[in-house]
Fold this sequence. Notes:
4-stranded mixed β-sheet; 7 helices
Amino acid sequence: MRVIGVGDNVVDKYVYKQTMYPGGNALNFSVYAKQLGVDAAYFGVFGDDAAANHIIKTLNGLEIDLSHCRQHKGENGYAAVDLVDGDRVFIGGNDGGIQKDHPIVLTKEDIKYIKTFDIAHSSVYSDMDAELHKIKEAGVLLSYDFSNEYTDQKLKTVCNDVDISLLSCGQLTEEEVEALLKKTHSYGSTLSIGTMGLARFNGI
């Protein structure tokens, strides 16, 4: 199997540690797949600062294919994190950095490359909803993580272009989750998955 994450990458800057950690939903998909022994690639937009260089170096060390990534002069996406009463708290960021000025627009060459993979994954944080139909039309199985950033209109717009919808549902009851997943399926996704980590934790 070959898989590719398409979209967001960031670094989490832990202020209290003075340490940067690579992240981002699409990027993490590629990393976790690689750690499970799957042939994985990542396709996204990098800046040219220390944060971008740290991510690129890390992914190269993991032997994740970056051959089709874009790189532009400017600040890579980041989120600043601090520790408050033992919990992580996000205290700032730059909303994706350079990707705001250079969003992903998939060319015919990009799609030809993505078609060499069995599964592609993107997310609500990748700001490329208008491009998703190109991947779907190319016949590549496409998953998409909405996190908890979904509205009914968002679901209507995106679900028809993705095969697998992932939604964070920890704030919902089981009945609400069931209704949401049925709605997501009715909007076009073949498979809808809701995670309820927070709800289950609170129930312990």
